[in-house]
Amino acid sequence: MTTRSDPTEALPTHRPSPPAPSTPLLSLRGLSVRFRMPAEERDGDRGGRRRGTAPPRYVAAVTDATLDLLPGEVLALVGESGCGKSVMAGAVLGLLPGNAEIAGAAMAGGIDLTTADERTLARRVRGRLIGLVPQSPGTHLTPVRTIRAQLEEAVRELHGLPRRTPRGRLREEAERAADRAWFPLDHLDAYPHELSGGLAQRAATALALVGDAPVLLADEPTTGLDRPLVERTVDQLRLLADQGRGVLIVTHDLAAAERVADRIAVMYAGRIVEVAQAREFFAGAGPRHPYAAGLLDALPSRAFTPIAGMPPELSRLPGGCAFAARCAHATDVCREGVPALLTPSAPGPAATGTGTVPAAPASGAVACHHPLGAPAARPRPKPPAEDLEPVHD
Ligand SMILES: Nc1ncnc2c1ncn2[C@@H]1O[C@H](COP(=O)(O)OP(=O)(O)OP(=O)(O)O)[C@@H](O)[C@H]1O
Ligand code: NI
């Protein structure tokens, strides 16, 4: 993809104040996804139990995720590769493979996305309630068709319009979508290869905006882009949120998240382990979960110290906190029980509210038996080898 600069790529500097937080646009409640895997012959089975009679294995890709996405906010979902971010996004769009088993709920526009049939998902959810900003505009755009033709086709499909629909209507809707993504109308007749990287990204975003969905889901929207293009891409998502949409960015790129996110949700081994205000997380008191602190410390702009060890296999999760084996703060209690996602002020689990619909943690929630920055009265674990305490305390 080319990344040459283009004067038409300047984004408007006007930044309207975000609307007051109100009803969530997307609500996950105890969302879990596991993949059923073919049974495996285990050690000791040979000669005894025959292959195929062993119990099936499961990959616990997402476990008990509770989270709200509010109008006007950019929420960044971060975590190491394989921790379940894309599976969570796929569950929301009804795009999981056949071996996926889902529990819990994911509500948007009054529809439970986990139980909706394919017809509902295709007609009412994808593109209409939730727009998907693709990872790689280069592969998302069809090389042999102009941007205008692709947008018009998307309009036709999304609105279920017949082939004979008057051109004017398609044209108008396509131009409206281009305009929403700040794609210059005088480039609409270009082919994808004629566009700069930034304009290709905007063309792909325009496709996601054809149905003017209130929720935008961007799974790794900046992978493979150079720094200036990363910044333009996420700034554009920020502006789309400022207009009242809810934007969920799934990313490895903590610098991009710091640049545009209002809130951060950190995932580890399939669970949300921390939800924080981005300002607090990056520039204020800092992360409260030792894993989240480790992610920040791993950044080249910070301590540049990777987290020792590897995440557990999602088909063989340990009994307690999944991070305990890598955590300098872990004690016996960590290995015994999975910590609930708690906010400091809430007496019970943050995911437990009043009424039948439990509340989601807004921010300041952490799933840790020994959260960082906790009162000194908390029993302090012994650091395992080197004295690592100053890094965290
Ligand atoms: N169809 C599938 N069958 C079995 N396991 C799967 C399937 N799809 C994904 N997984 C597993 O689910 C886990 C979560 O994967 P996911 O793609 O959500 O990770 P991710 O956090 O998005 O990682 P990355 O940052 O690399 O994109 C991984 O262990 C992955 O191997
Ligand atoms: Ni992913």
UniProtKB/TrEMBL annotation:
This is Nickel import system ATP-binding protein NikD. Residues 1-27, 36-55, 345-393 are annotated as: Disordered. It comes from the Bacteria. Its EC number is 7.2.2.11. GO terms for molecular function: ABC-type nickel transporter activity; ATP binding; ATP hydrolysis activity. Belongs to the ABC transporter superfamily. It holds the Pfam family ABC_tran. Residues 37-47, 383-393 have a biased composition (Basic and acidic residues). The complex is composed of two ATP-binding proteins (NikD and NikE), two transmembrane proteins (NikB and NikC) and a solute-binding protein (NikA). Its main location: membrane. It is an enzyme of class 7 (translocase).
